[in-house]
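Teaching assistant's notes for section 4

Start the section by putting this record on the projector. Ask students to predict, before seeing the second block, whether ABC transporter ATP-binding protein will look compact or extended. Collect guesses on the board.
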Amino acid sequence: MTDLYHPGVPSGQPIWSPSAPLLKLKGLTYVHQDTVLLHEIDLQLARHGITLLLGPNGAGKSLLMRLAHGLIAPTSGDVIWHTQPDMPPLLQAMVFQHPVMLRRTALANLTYALAARRVPWRRRRALAMETLERFGLISLAQRQARVLSGGEQQRLALARAWVLKPEVLFLDEPTSALDPASMRAVEEAVHAFHAEGTRIVMSSHDLNQARRLADDVVLLCGGRLVEHTPAERFFQGPRTPEARAFIRGELIW
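Reveal the predicted structure now:
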């Protein structure tokens, strides 16, 4: 479960300030087999909102989220979470494009996550059933998670995150292979997380989805941060040639 529920231990020393950004990436670089996949990313994310990571295939969106989440370590640079002194690390969750399903029932996928978080066993089933009902999965509670449809698995992955009440949620193209109804269900879940105060960082190729969801947009291209701006400004008047080309549907590399 560490791929889904990682504590996100920062590589830099957090410094608390009410006005400080929640997350700061400083010179974040990742090199694999002598190829630089991310180039000195400097990025600050506010404490609240929904950030959409956009960019072509291979731009580094998924890699950036994995580094921020703590699943892999950067080659150089810092990932700094600004948290209050003497407080535990922020509870984070990450849902992947192809969600990881345990070889258990849908219900047991949730109760296992609750057990990993040391929730008392007497409360686990009730919390899990309540969450399955919220996500429209109650009729599938006893079905094996790995035989569910793609849309059902994605909703189950979101339900598994929801039951733990994460403070930060990373979503890696969660609707890329879903039908319109399943996409709508996932977007409704994103809004529900946001309404509960969860900080959302999500990657997508869908510009219309970004228009519907994003408070701010980060555009990556070739492992470089090209533009970071409020969503309305990004779509109405992007600053960079790469952003203008991306919005027009042109290939950028």
